[in-house]
Amino acid sequence: MPKPSKREDLLASALEVFHTRGFHGTGIKEIADAAGAPKGSFYNHFASKEECAVAALRRYGAEQRFDLLTDTSLPPLERIRRHFEFLRDGIAGRDFTRGCLVGNFATDVVDHSELIRSAVADGLGSWYELIAGALTEARRDGAVRADLDPQATAHFVVNAWEGTIIEARATRSAAPFDTFFQLIFDVVLR
Amino acid sequence: MPKPSKREDLLASALEVFHTRGFHGTGIKEIADAAGAPKGSFYNHFASKEECAVAALRRYGAEQRFDLLTDTSLPPLERIRRHFEFLRDGIAGRDFTRGCLVGNFATDVVDHSELIRSAVADGLGSWYELIAGALTEARRDGAVRADLDPQATAHFVVNAWEGTIIEARATRSAAPFDTFFQLIFDVVLR
Fold first, then answer.
1. Which residues bind DNA (chains A, B) (predicted)?
2. Do B98 and B124 lie in a common domain?
């Protein structure tokens, strides 16, 4: 029976290496090396690099403060703002490298792995639902215009965020985040 | 003296392979094979895979109908709409695979190549300028609200587009494009 703690070590290393080097740039040996484990032990815990990538994506999701979006101690728009501020600070704190693992896998590997494509679609779907929930509350509270469509707007906000990261990475600048917050909160969610 | 036509063949192959497999998934041998050229001939035309990727990115840009954005026979917002419709049709016509080479390189390789990062930033910069030019005209014509900031809005529109592609690829669906057009033209550019 493989030790659970070794799986945790491998998963933490996998997340780090996938996030830094991308799916295609990551080898199983690098994941094992980063966890201080022999390469062969990888397959005691994961059936394939793809399956490990899906597990890494789930772990990544668990670290993105989605809990902020359902924190009823805050007004709904403030929850959305704080969630994206948290994501922004993470990317800025890594000098605008690495980006978002969801967006990375979506450009890097969805064409080549149905398993990962499905996990990326599920991850995005959960994110849209949480934002749509907060927007539905905001509309009920009169904090956004009455004709705002929470579902469509949630997709748009998240997608705009993912594209904002592209500019932030390419220009190594926080300015695209400022523009995102300005346009989303002053124009889209008015 | 290397034949220019062979460089063209290699460049066309490089664009195809980079777009299909990503930077890290592409080998020089695959580019040469796809062009029917010996691997060694690649270096008669390109100093490195990176330099070839930058040339492929420029060629890709030349095919994206940026000319629509300065077509003064059309109202400015219509130019923007037709440009993004052209991009949408290209992606939908490939069953939502491949995405946008600018966005792909921005997630796949900007952290690892300063040459490509700079080319991606330049490509985005030219795109923002063309959209900002059309938005400036639209504001002058009263087709958008008077307080719209053409520069910030241009960045936002292009970035939202790049993120929209992420959802379209992950879900293999045109619905994200519909949402993009709805939110951009009915809400952001009102």
1. 27-46
2. yes
Which of B96, B76, B66 has its CA nearest to residue B177? B96
| Structural domain total, chain A | 2
The reply to whether residue A111 touches residue B169, judged by beta carbons under 8 angstroms, is yes
Q: Which amino acid is at A7?
A: R
User: In sequence order, what DSSP letters do the residues of A93-137 get, joined into one string?
Assistant: TTTT-S--HHHHHHHHTTTT-HHHHHHHHHHHHHHHHHHHHHHHH
Minimal Cβ distance to A103: which of B102, B107, B161: B107
Q: Exposed, middle or buried, A80 (CB in 10 Å: 0-12/13-18/19+)?
A: buried
Identify all chain B residues contacting A171, using CB atoms and an 8 Å cutoff: 121, 124
CATH of the domain at B157: 1.10.357.10
Q: How far is B147 from chain A (nearest CA, A)?
A: 11
pLDDT tens string, chain B, 190 residues long: the values are 566 689 999 999 999 999 999 999 999 999 999 999 999 999 999 999 999 999 999 999 999 999 999 999 999 999 999 999 999 999 999 999 999 999 999 999 999 999 999 999 999 999 999 999 999 999 999 999 999 999 999 999 999 999 999 999 999 999 999 999 999 999 999 9
CATH assignment of the domain containing B13: 1.10.10.60
CA dist., res. A127 & res. A97, Å (int): 22
Q: Which domain holds residue A108?
A: 64-188
Say yes or no: B50 and B69 in one domain: no
